[in-house]
Design a protein that fits this description.
The protein is α/β, with parallel strands linked by helices. Helix content is 36%, strand content 20%. The chain has a 5-stranded parallel beta sheet, sandwiched between helices. It is globular, with a radius of gyration of 13 Å.
């Protein structure tokens, strides 16, 4: 099962992190395989920078792919060099990434 989590509001970080943890635990407990991706856009991209308290390295250690929206970075004048090293992909448009993943059969979760 492939799943894409979407966060666009800073206030939702605790919820999305909890959801990711529970999804990852389910994969481990059931032996299920698939991709877990976190798509970050809107104001939530501000937590993807190196100075953030959100630990993206722990997500990578649990095989969670992290994608950040370039449009949202541009709107906030955040350079890709300022992102945490664990951010795997910068996509041109977060909404397009979400639509593409849903077309590919990913389950969409927006806490």
């Amino acid at each position: 099962m492939d799943v894409i989590f979407h966060i666009d509001e800073t206030i939702k970080w605790p919820t999305v992190l909890s959801n990711l943890k529970h999804m990852n635990e389910w994969y481990s407990e059931t032996g299920s395989t698939g991709t877990i991706e976190l798509l970050i856009n809107g104001e939530a991209v501000e937590q993807a920078i190196k100075a953030s308290d959100v630990n993206f390295t722990a997500m990578i250690d649990h095989n969670i792919k992290i994608a950040v929206c370039q449009n949202s970075l541009d709107q906030r004048q955040i350079a890709t060099a300022d992102l945490q090293d664990a951010v795997a992909v910068v996509v041109p448009s977060g909404v397009v990434e979400l639509a593409l993943k849903q077309q590919q059969g990913y389950s969409y979760i927006n806490p």
